[in-house]
Structures are given as structure tokens and as C-alpha cells.
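pinging the channel bc i need a second pair of eyes. not urgent but kinda urgent?? the chain im working w is below, pasted from the shared doc
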Amino acid sequence: MSDPAPSPTPASAGRRGMFSAYAAIALLVALDQGTKLLVRRAFEPGECLPVVPGLFNLTYVRNEGAAWGILQGWGIFLVALAIAMFVFLAVRRRQVFGEGRLATAAFILLLAGIAGNVLDRLFLRYVVDFLDFYHGAWHFPAFNVADSCICVGVGLFLLRNLFFPSDPTHSH
């Protein structure tokens, strides 16, 4: 009978965890880019498809600014800022996010969202938005999968840091 496989060292377990995190980032970026490609192929800019009348449309919007269309025309600045933020968060992951499931999820979602939108800016010169929620005359600005990743990632980051800043039960 052979000996059982040795348990992984903390360093190898950490490398496996980071590989899994970057694989999850890649999958989310692929989902983001795939949905945007489908929208670009199926719709003309400004074209709208009601999905849930009175609540939700698919609407192809070319956003040349930042969130909600602010900073129109600042494309190069936005690309540089996004790349700098991506690198900073990737390099300083532990210092910024800490450890644990919420921290890892926030890290994955933020990096995936940043990467998804920066790819649009680099290759299209605008970000493809298409998820359009509204009620009556009120419209929430159109957004995409990458934007959703960023918002949920920020939410998890805040949740972890506000409610579990040093709780060891949320560090694994």
C-alpha cells in the first residue's frame, strides 16, 4: 500500500488559488466580451429590443465616457487609469483585499470588470452597454456584464471591510 499524497504546502495551495482566481477572471471577461459581441452583431447603435415591457430592454449603447457616460472624450486617460488600477490591484491584492472568500470574490469581480471594459476601449474606442432597466420615463443608465462585475465586486469589498474587517471566520 502506498503512502497518501502529501498535503500541499501553503505556497502551492496559494498558487493553485491564484490560478483559479485568474481562470475565473478570464471566464468573466469572456462572458462580458461574448455578450458585447452578440449585441454588436445583432443590433445597430441605439436599437432597442423590449425584453420585459415597462422594465427591461436590450439597447445597444456606445459609451465613449466612463460610468453613466461621464468623461466623454477622455478615452486615453480612462484606458491608462484602468490599466494602472488593474496592475495595482493585481500586485497589491493581499494588502488591498485581505484574505478570505469575500476578498477573493471582490478581487475576481473587480479585475474582470476592469479588464472587460478596458478591452472595449482599446479595440473599439468605446464601451458596449446594453442592459437597459427603466420604469415609465425613468431610465437607469445602460450597463454591461463588466459594469455588473465592478459594482458587485465593490459591494463585496465594502461588505467584507465594514462588517468583517478582522473576523477569522471570513478569512478562509
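so Strands lie at 48-52, 56-63, 127-135, 138-139. and The helical segments are 10-42, 75-91, 93-97, 101-123, 145-163. — does that match what u expected or am i reading it wrong
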